[in-house]
Amino acid sequence: MTTETLIRAEHPLPEAEFGERYAQVQQFYSHQMQLFDAHDADRWAATFTEDAVFDVPTLDAPVRGRAGLAANVRRNRAQQERSGDQLRHWIGMLDIRPGRDDELHTRCYALVYVTPRGGTSKVLRVCVMEDVLVRVRGKWRTRHRVVTRDDLA
Amino acid sequence: MTTETLIRAEHPLPEAEFGERYAQVQQFYSHQMQLFDAHDADRWAATFTEDAVFDVPTLDAPVRGRAGLAANVRRNRAQQERSGDQLRHWIGMLDIRPGRDDELHTRCYALVYVTPRGGTSKVLRVCVMEDVLVRVRGKWRTRHRVVTRDDLA
Amino acid sequence: MTTETLIRAEHPLPEAEFGERYAQVQQFYSHQMQLFDAHDADRWAATFTEDAVFDVPTLDAPVRGRAGLAANVRRNRAQQERSGDQLRHWIGMLDIRPGRDDELHTRCYALVYVTPRGGTSKVLRVCVMEDVLVRVRGKWRTRHRVVTRDDLA
ipTM > 0.90? Predict the structure, then answer.
């Protein structure tokens, strides 16, 4: 528990830009997670860069690139259509560290809620998510993501 | 699960205005939900337009107008005073789409937590909330709300 | 339930400053809570003013000053290393009321999630948190905090 590496809170942006940037990142994650939960595979994959690395504990190995990301969402969709579970991914406690130019490092918490069809909702997982975001043609994209699960820590 | 209609992420606002708008909407929902959970019926109803439509699965039919909205909160208050439950409504994953002039479409997740008096807190419901917000004399108001519950989907 | 005192939503800041301020406070809490959950005692204590008052229901009496705050985190660390529990504190429904100069009053909800080592995550507590924040040499600091728990209300 004591070895967690937190990102530095300092940011070199002028005040007005920090507020704008923070809102953009919140909007970005909100849309990205809604696409994920709706199993909108291609639009979700497009929120990552072409060469993105996606390293999460539910996968055996990191996924690289949009085709692999989209395939992962299609597997989720098939699995959840069988099980009847609706997942919802929440991001919170978003700590951002603007870097050089159009790059950002983020560290946040991620919760996963599950609701079985006709059943009772519950918290499924509590995670920490660390991203490198880059801005490509005016839009934020995830270039690198590492997720760790509290239950596997 | 695959038929969910997500709102478009594109927004026509200049950068600085988007950040300002996003913060205003977060502040608006925070205050609106705190009023709701405190059963402050009239002040909560005043965060809706006079002709607002409120369509939620816990009600048999959509409520229209502030008097009906306030009456609904008073029923909640009476019911929760009997049961001893404290509810807390959380908004997250807020996706906003600024429209023409002083209008906004939002799509977000809503969680409801319940704590029985002296008891153990738990997640009660996981919902999706879609609003049309309008700005009236400088203040955001909900004109139309549709909530769906994951357990009833 | 009906006696809760909500803060006023009105704020005297110009629009662009409100958005900036709101983002700063979100960033502040995100970082503060991540430090708390990582048991980073001194850096967490440094997010409070030297003379801060910290009044939470898990402590017998309010803690005053940074040394006491840091000691409290070290006790948490020792306790959680024994139990194997990982706690995560989430802030949401953040309602801010800018005051005079570099001072802010906030009222928000706070959730605590717990994950036992190798076990199942769950909601541990639902709380309401009220802070007075001040800006010292360009950085927000908590000067006064009162937390109430829904299960003890």
Answer: yes
